[in-house]
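Appendix B. One record, verbatim.
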Amino acid sequence: MPLDYKIIGRNIKNRRKELHITQQKMADDLFLSLSLISKLERGVKPVSLETFHSIAQYLNTSVAILMADPDDPRVQHNHLISEIDAMLEDMDNKHLRVVNRLMRTYAELIAEYTCPADGQPETE
């Protein structure tokens, strides 16, 4: 599968903006030109593996995430799991138990709705 530099560029730009970093600051910090950062983000210039790795480290992410198509359902799924994981990390045990009970109840309702006792999905 060939690299899609438009996707890579969009991901770099989105991550940079999430971190509230300007193109100029990123260029200065990585000892790259502002022009190169702009071209990379627009997907009009291929990036060397060394530079790509440096950018991923600088943005505190992975090369794989920067290469991933955000419209791919698998990527969206993994992103949602990461968001949930981040929220759970900040909770104490008391709140985690509450979330656990809520999730179990919700999962049981989903299973009941999609596969009732007779094995046939419910229809509206």
